[in-house]
């Protein structure tokens, strides 16, 4: 009708547009949660820093302990709620009793066993999408209750149609996108802290995480790394690597043989096998010494969930998603660092770090020795006493490192995880001491090669 206003049509987003809007809101909320948690942790420590001024050492220590407990719980809740990369980070911090305050270890070590699993329908949907067939057609039997759930994937026991017992590793369907988002958030947060607190500039560590974590999302690569490491360790006594089921390898689903063993944290079952725990630590450290020093190809995630103990003290290494190949200069430079550390030789340690490409903010040897001995060893290189938490906090707060190669960051992570494993098994030697025989072998072999070519 002329002159009459037509009713306005309101279009609501639906279908793909609605999904995109929902995802954008979810990403924004996730990013906001990270920023909010980071701010609460940072501001909490700044308030405690002001509060302890003028207090007695005992009263200040109590305040710091409360702050550590509150901050650790905030990070634990963040990891449980957001999952993915944050669980992986929390698991690592939870193993570093040598560096992290005890409250962090107590709180975040819970992530080793309590990563919430995804529902069976999600797992089966991913299997069908990856293999083009439902799980009921691929397997004679498939256990919907996972053997374990980790930060990026979970594993289920199953039986193939031909009767073989296997483990099926299935990646969480949204994890690749979330990892990209989380790395961006982490870079932003760490960058802001670094600009405000230069002594806490850990952007090099975050950059290494950004380079390595995406590798864990490619199960085709993981299958190849499993084959290669398994072949390298085939002649090593007391160490096994599960075989890959070759016809069942996909980017987000991987099937390997099932190995029946005790989890490294299952102390009661290990003791029932009559296994010598320090000898077990030696076997595990030996497997990593051979991988790092001799082969230059190593599984870089030796946390307790990735190691099984079999009768007789044999260990099975699992999960080769994070596997690193070292160039020879890095492999031999790290071997020299291990030997110099064992000799408690400050000049040798400094020379090895320089060779490895470590740059510091000053030329003071004490600065780099303090942090790097903390990074790889449990005590200062010029003292016989154990490190106290005060030593650790002081070294971390100075942070003299300006640049550190990503390979060395990863090696430091492996040594830290091995230290937690060895400590839980009551090993009398540190990982660096256990790695020394393999470092000496590598250097001796390199010397023979140089002599032959001269």
Structure description:
The chain is an alpha+beta fold. Among the domains are: 16-112, no CATH class; 261-454, no CATH class. The chain contains 17 helices and 14 strands. It has helices at 16-51, 57-82, 85-95, 102-108, 120-131, 135-138, 175-196, 203-212, 219-232, 267-272, 277-295, 328-342, 346-356, 365-376, 389-398, 406-424, 431-453, and strands at residues 139-142, 148-149, 153-160, 165-171, 239-240, 244-250, 253-257, 262-263, 297-299, 307-309, 315-317, 323-325, 359-360, 401-403. Strands 1, 2, 3, 4, 6 and 7 form a six-stranded antiparallel beta sheet that branches. A four-stranded mixed beta sheet has the order 5-11-10-8. A two-stranded antiparallel ribbon has the order 9-12. Helix 2 runs antiparallel to helix 3 (85-95), helix 12 (328-342) crosses helix 17 (431-453) and helix 14 crosses helix 15. The longest helix is centred in the N-terminal third of the chain and has 36 residues, at 16-51. The chain is globular and about 70 Å long. It starts with 15 loop residues before the first helix and ends with a helix. Residues 378-398 have low confidence and may be disordered.
- Cα-atom radius of gyration: 25 Å
pLDDT < 50 runs, ≥5 residues: 378-398
Largest sheet: 6 strands, antiparallel
How far apart the termini lie comes to 100 Å
Please report the number of helical segments. 17
The count of β-strands is 14
Mean pLDDT: 81
**Alpha-beta classification:** alpha+beta
Q: Into which percentage range does the β-strand content fall?
A: 5-15%
Helix fraction, binned, reads: 55-70%
Large-scale geometry: globular
């Amino acid at each position: 009708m002329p002159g009459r206003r037509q009713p306005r049509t309101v279009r609501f987003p639906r279908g793909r547009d609605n999904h995109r809007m929902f995802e954008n809101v979810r990403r924004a909320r996730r990013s906001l949660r990270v920023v909010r948690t980071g701010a609460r942790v940072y501001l909490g420590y700044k308030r405690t820093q002001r509060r302890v001024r003028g207090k007695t050492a005992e009263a200040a220590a109590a305040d710091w302990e409360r702050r550590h407990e509150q901050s650790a719980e905030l990070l634990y809740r963040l990891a449980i709620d957001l999952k993915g990369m944050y669980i992986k980070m929390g698991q690592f911090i939870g193993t570093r009793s040598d560096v992290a305050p005890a409250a962090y270890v107590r709180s975040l070590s819970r992530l080793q066993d309590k990563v919430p699993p995804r529902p069976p329908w999600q797992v089966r949907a991913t299997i069908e999408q990856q293999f083009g067939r439902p799980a009921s057609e691929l397997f004679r039997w498939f256990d919907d209750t996972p053997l374990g759930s980790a930060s990026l994937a979970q594993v289920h026991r199953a039986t193939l149609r031909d009767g073989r017992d296997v483990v099926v590793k299935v990646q969480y369907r949204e994890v690749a996108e979330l990892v990209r988002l989380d790395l961006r958030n982490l870079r932003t947060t760490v960058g802001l802290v670094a600009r405000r607190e230069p002594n806490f500039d850990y952007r090099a560590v975050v950059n290494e995480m950004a380079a390595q974590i995406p590798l864990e999302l490619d199960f085709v690569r993981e299958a190849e790394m499993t084959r290669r490491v398994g072949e390298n360790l085939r002649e090593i006594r007391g160490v096994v690597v599960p075989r890959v089921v070759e016809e069942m390898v996909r980017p987000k689903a991987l099937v390997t043989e099932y190995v029946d063993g005790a989890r490294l944290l299952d102390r009661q079952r290990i003791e029932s096998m009559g296994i010598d725990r320090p000898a077990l630590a030696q076997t595990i450290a030996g497997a990593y010494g051979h991988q790092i020093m001799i082969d230059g190809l190593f599984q870089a995630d030796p946390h307790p969930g990735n190691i099984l103990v079999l009768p007789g003290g044999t260990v099975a290494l699992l999960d080769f998603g994070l596997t690193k190949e070292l160039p020879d200069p890095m492999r031999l430079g790290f071997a020299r660092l291990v030997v110099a550390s064992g000799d408690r030789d400050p000049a040798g340690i400094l020379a090895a770090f320089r060779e490895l490409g470590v740059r510091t903010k000053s030329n003071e040897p004490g600065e780099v020795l303090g942090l790097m001995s903390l990074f790889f060893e449990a005590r200062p290189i010029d003292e016989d006493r154990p490190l106290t938490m005060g030593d650790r906090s002081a070294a971390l707060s100075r942070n003299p490192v300006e640049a550190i190669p990503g390979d060395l960051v990863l090696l430091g992570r492996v040594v830290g995880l091995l230290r937690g494993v060895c400590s839980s098994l009551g090993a009398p030697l540190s990982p660096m001491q256990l790695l020394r025989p393999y470092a000496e072998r590598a250097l001796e072999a390199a010397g023979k090669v140089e002599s032959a070519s001269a």
